[in-house]
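Reviewer 2 asked us to include a model.

Predict the structure of this chain.
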Amino acid sequence: MTLSRRHFVQTVGIGAGAALTSQIWGRGRENAIWSAIEPDLQAVERGVICIASNENPVGPGQRVLDSLRTLLEGGKKPGRYSGQMGDLTDAIAGHFKVKTENVLLSEGSTEVLRAATQVFTAKTKPLVGTIPTYEECAGYAELIGNKVVGVKLNSEFKIDLDMMLNAAKGAGLVFYCNPNNPTATYVGARATRDFLTKLIAASPDTTVLVDEAYFDYVTDPDHETHVPFAIEHPQVIVARTFSKAYGMAGLRQGYAIAHPETIKKLRMWTASGGTGSLNLFGMSAATVAIQQDASFTTNERNRNKQVRDFVTKWFKDRGMKPTDGQANFMFVDIGTPAKEFREACRAKGVLVARDFPPFEKTHARITLGTMAEMQKAVQVFGEVLGKKTSTAAA
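Predicted model (structure tokens):
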């Protein structure tokens, strides 16, 4: 059983997605990138509902859009390098109440994931992650010839902490995606801190990359960022992105927060490590986004939860079981191969996600669009799956 798709990085390439979208929120970006590997996937066409890529369907908000308009109207020249990296670094540090030396900017969180894999894995220091999870680290580890160790999820499709702890001893890097993509399941903050503490004690040379890409969508009350833990422990890195709740997938902005010594190690393997390579408009937008009132992410979380509750009930009422999702997507046992479901939905104008082995014969990942989009999408699901409300649910 493999943790990743072999040759993922060779096929896709580091910057493959950069030109795939002109929209700031880049809807369909993930689906379009993966079409290089799965030909039945397609880029978004006009009039098609895209719930195949885990993006915010409503975009970054008016303040961010206004800031970009002002930037353009003010004659800002994108053909020149800028000092915007410092402004964004300061803004992120201020948001988390950390020092600037704890922050590393990147092109989305992808650059952080690859840098961590490069720095902390080796021929004798494998990468450890769940099966399935987001494939970036595993794909890159395979590309550079380092071993990948997969750990099965538990019966609730959550990270099995005991199995992960055993597999992680002696590893170079543990990829801890929480909430996990594609399963949308979440391990609480207390249990995660306990796991990190035990792992550091049992295997002090192992680094853990905590991917908090979907942090702002979690509604579980046991929910805290692990940034404070990472600041105190050089073995822990937290990766974040502006591509999800902040609605800026097309602008490719992300960052890592960690101990200063860990940031130094990562910096050598990122294009943004002092070269000024991040795009001016993306950095400007991200600076405004993270400084805006917290109500933006609160409103987005609430909007997403309403949609998530609606779609969850729709599936449950028809005898299909979604996981306990805590993100802007869900993983559902539809009882039929995802490929057949995907193709049938696409014929009716709805794009759903790619396969996720080893559950591609039974489960589909459904990204949550707007309420209006999902009301239309579930009608298509019902037609494709032939499912009606069960008697018990009615």
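The chain has two domains: 8-60+294-385, 63-291. The domain at 8-60+294-385 is CATH 3.90.1150.10 (Aspartate Aminotransferase, domain 1). We have added this to the supplementary material.
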